[in-house]
Write a structure and sequence with these properties.
The protein is mostly beta strands. It is built from no helices and 11 strands.
Length: about 120
């Protein structure tokens, strides 16, 4: 089965930067392509919220709280999605999750929603 795995999380100081990566893995016989993708985050004690999305055509959308600071991008040749986070604030702290609609062909062609296990991002003041 296809899986999404995030990486790049860690600690940063206020005003610093981090780059998150999300890679889809699967055999050449199952993984076909990534459709609409996105990044979500969940702060301690709070609900999961949308951070940024990017469509298969490259159109992006951001939460108001991260506009101008975060940039979502994708590399379909590598079945990957990225989130460049600049000018980090303590409120950006949380577990970041990669979510995507992925087209697979095993046992038949279909598109399903997948979530990564998450990666911790901690921003200290």
């Amino acid at each position: 089965q296809v899986q999404l795995v995030e990486s790049g999380g860690g600690e940063a100081q206020t005003g610093g930067s981090l780059r998150l990566s999300c890679a889809a893995s699967g055999s050449i016989f199952s993984l076909i392509s990534l459709n609409d993708m996105g990044w979500y985050r969940q702060a301690p004690g709070k609900r999961r919220e949308l951070v940024a999305t990017i469509t298969s055509a490259g159109s992006t959308n951001y939460a108001a709280s991260v506009k101008g600071r975060f940039t979502i991008s994708r590399d379909d040749a590598k079945d990957s999605v990225f989130l460049q986070m600049n000018s980090l604030k303590p409120e950006d702290t949380g577990v970041y999750y990669c979510k995507g609609m992925i087209v697979t062909m095993t046992p038949y062609r279909r598109m399903n929603e997948f979530w990564g296990p998450g990666t911790q991002v901690t921003v200290s003041s």
